[in-house]
Amino acid sequence: MRVAKLPARKARILALRYLGAGVVTLLFLFPVYWLFMISFKTPDEIYHVPPLWIPGQIQFSNYYVLFKDGDVLAILNSLVVAGVSSGVAIVLGTLCAYSLARFGTGGENLAMWIISQRMIPPIAVVFPIFLIYVYFGLVDGYFGLILLYTAFNLPYVIWMMRGYIVDVPLELEESALVDGLNRWEVIWKVVFPMVRPGLMATSVFTFVFAWNDFLFALVLTRTEVITFPVMLTHYFGGQSNFWAKIAAMSVLGTLPIFVAVSVMQRYLVRGISLGAVKG
Fold this sequence. Notes:
Blueprint: H1 2-38, H2 43-46, H3 61-69, H4 73-103, H5 110-118, H6 122-136, H7 142-166, H8 170-178, H9 183-194, H10 196-212, H11 215-220, H12 228-233, H13 243-263, H14 265-274
Helix pairs in contact: 1-13, 3-13, 4-7, 4-10, 5-7, 7-10, 8-9, 10-14
């Protein structure tokens, strides 16, 4: 009797799990849906009571205003700064991680010291950095932000890639060296293919960190290199907020992240778990 009831009980538990997962998913997706809908609404529909779940007519004027006023250049600035800084951090960080993993550069504690630099609160160093940037004329320029984001992302890249490289069997590299490859060829032809999922996952997270930064971009930019997070704050006023622009700009600003995660999706789960401790 108990054996007969077991499958039905498991089915109910499974159904409740799916139901709970569905409810949680809807709760997380609702703000995204609401933001997307607001970007197509007129001002009257945005402030309508009760709320209108679907706009009466799709309006692209909110997006048109962003292109007309040149506000979308902030997204282009973020793409340049986040993309270049992430690429530089990945290249330099991977080479540093290989040195730490294979040659023990700096001893056993250097890797821990490197990652500890990433834990420094940005608010604690933004003012000294601002003074240095003013002295060297790096404020409100691409080079200054790229240099800063690269420096702040390097510890994360080194720490993550070191864990991935350690998991690569040393015998593979020794065999490649015996076959006549030099060290650079070993890194390019043996190590990189083995750690590709971790490399892609680290690249995505590094890009997201640089893309979402607000404090450094707010302090170190003025008019020439305004990034996406800083531009959003311009739509909040003391008397009123431009919700249509906020929604449209937010939708445009999430597209690069959505595309990056979608393209790298097959690498993310494997890459995140690649350096995990296996028990």
